[in-house]
Amino acid sequence: MSRTRLPNRRPSMTMQFVYEANHYSVTLGFDVVNDRIGEVFTHGAKIGSAMDRILDDACVALSLLLQHGVAPDALAASMGRLGDGKSPASVIGALSDLIARESRPQ
């Protein structure tokens, strides 16, 4: 499957979320041609920290998967879960869950 390049200017939505008592700001960019989320940016870790770099790379990977047509629900379902089978095992899984939730019709 080929990548859908997003336009240089596109609508976005920024929200706050908490994972394991850490606060993050998440911006979702929309692919208006295909009517779906096409990119994600996350901030909240100390700038320059290992977690900041991990989140940057994770957002690039998640965005590329979305732009290659991976369904948000499938992306979220593929992430690791804690022993209860529902709670995300990492902040990356929590981001995937957020993307899947925001992708569903309201």
Could you tell me the mean pLDDT?
A: 93
Strand order in space, largest sheet: 1-2-3
Q: Tell me how many strands there are.
A: 3
Round the Cα radius of gyration to an integer and report it.
14 Å
Largest sheet: 3 strands, antiparallel
**Low-confidence stretches at least 5 residues in length (pLDDT < 50)?**
none
Order of helices and strands: EEEHHH
Beginning-to-end CA distance, first to last residue? 28 Å
Derived from helix and strand composition plus strand pairing, the structural class reads alpha+beta
Number of domains: 1
Overall 3D shape: globular
Per DSSP, the total helix count is 3
Overall helicity: 25-40%
Percent strand = 15-25%
